[in-house]
């Protein structure tokens, strides 16, 4: 299996890869590994402060807000927490400090990241009726490298009315997607056979070219996409496939267009796409998935050797 980035990717958190010398079973194993096995940090416990407090002006606040605690905890779980694979954290079950402790006592700086949030609704003198609490209000106690990233700081968590406050500690731990979706580092993980487009009839293809369509990068869709009647640029082929809907069945152009452009599958090549949630970079996700796969297969080989010895 040879993996390369399609030129120009990743774009922010999205990525397109070209995988060669493989089959669909292997590529699907990679897809499933990203969904279920790549370790990622996510908030998995929240301790709320409860009760009534008074600020120094004598104003009274109560620990209620628009959402039930459970719903808010779920929202926190889905917040992308920066996961740095170089920063060695243990899984809670494998942490040497906590391994033998009772579940309620588990958790130390080697296996969890601690966040806190303290917010109050608008004061009674304020003209505002509500205050929105955002992920940006989360403060990391553990280490600034785990601070919620800039791009994720405007995710709304809940709203507070006058006289309401929200205060909690949240604990993020490493986990895998097979335990809970909050640990899955990417979404929209798909793949398809790599194809090339063949220009069979330049004249009939004018039906499409005369529509003045462009590819995603702004290149005009016309015969200049083809070199010696073939277009094998991964991005352009995908854009061309979309453009073909303009000359497909029901458009009234299908007869004039005919088979002017056709697509041919390239054997053993796949285009693989996904979007990271931002907790890991696309490169880190791929590398981590390959490590997981490799680890699993070498374990199987060892066990087979042992069983057959
Ligand atoms: Zn620990």
Task: List its salient traits.
alpha+beta, flat, five-stranded antiparallel beta sheet, binds zinc ion, about 300 residues, four-stranded antiparallel beta sheet, 2 domains, RNA Polymerase Alpha Subunit, Chain A, domain 2
Overall description:
The chain is α+β, with helices and mostly antiparallel strands. It has 6 helices and 13 strands. It has helices spanning 24-36, 69-77, 202-209, 234-243, 254-257, 282-308; strands at residues 2-5, 14-20, 40-48, 52-54, 60-62, 113-120, 130-134, 139-140, 156-161, 165-175, 186-199, 230-231, 261-276. A hairpin with a 5-residue loop joins strand 4 (52-54) and strand 5 (60-62). Helix 1 (24-36) crosses helix 6 (282-308). The structure holds zinc ion.
Topology (SSEs and partners):
Layout: E1 2-5, E2 14-20, H1 24-36, E3 40-48, E4 52-54, E5 60-62, H2 69-77, E6 113-120, E7 130-134, E8 139-140, E9 156-161, E10 165-175, E11 186-199, H3 202-209, E12 230-231, H4 234-243, H5 254-257, E13 261-276, H6 282-308
Antiparallel strand pairs: 1-2, 2-13, 3-10, 4-5, 6-8, 6-10, 7-9, 11-12, 11-13
Helix pairs in contact: 1-6
The chain binds zinc ion.
Zinc ion (ZN) binds at residues 95, 97-98, 107-108, 110-111.
């Amino acid at each position: 299996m040879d993996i390369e980035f399609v030129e120009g990717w990743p774009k922010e958190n999205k990525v397109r890869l070209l995988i060669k010398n493989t089959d669909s079973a292997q590529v699907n194993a990679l897809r499933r590994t990203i969904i279920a096995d790549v370790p990622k940090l996510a908030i998995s416990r929240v301790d709320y402060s409860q009760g009534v407090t008074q600020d120094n002006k004598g104003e009274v606040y109560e620990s209620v807000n628009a959402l039930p605690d459970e719903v808010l905890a779920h929202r926190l779980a889905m917040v992308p927490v920066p996961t740095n694979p170089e920063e060695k954290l243990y899984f809670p079950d494998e942490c040497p400090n906590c391994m033998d402790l009772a579940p309620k006592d588990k958790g130390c700086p080697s296996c969890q990241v601690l966040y806190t949030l303290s917010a109050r609704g608008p004061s009674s003198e304020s003209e505002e009726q509500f205050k929105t609490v955002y992920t940006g209000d989360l403060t990391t106690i553990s280490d600034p490298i785990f601070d919620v990233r800039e791009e994720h700081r405007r995710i709304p968590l809940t709203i507070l009315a006058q006289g309401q406050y929200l205060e909690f500690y949240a604990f993020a731990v490493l986990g895998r997607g097979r335990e809970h979706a909050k640990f899955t580092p990417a979404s929209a993980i798909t793949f398809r056979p790599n194809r090339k487009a063949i220009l069979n009839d330049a004249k009939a293809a004018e039906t499409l070219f005369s529509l003045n369509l462009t590819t995603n990068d702004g290149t005009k869709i016309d015969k200049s996409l083809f070199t010696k009647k073939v277009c094998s640029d991964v991005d352009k082929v995908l854009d061309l496939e979309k453009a073909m809907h303009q000359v497909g069945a029901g458009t009234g152009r299908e007869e004039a267009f005919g088979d002017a452009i056709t697509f041919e599958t390239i054997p053993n090549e796949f285009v693989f796409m996904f979007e990271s949630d931002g907790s890991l970079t696309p490169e880190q996700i791929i590398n981590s998935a390959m490590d997981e796969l490799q680890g699993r297969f070498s374990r199987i080989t060892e066990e087979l050797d042992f069983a057959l010895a």
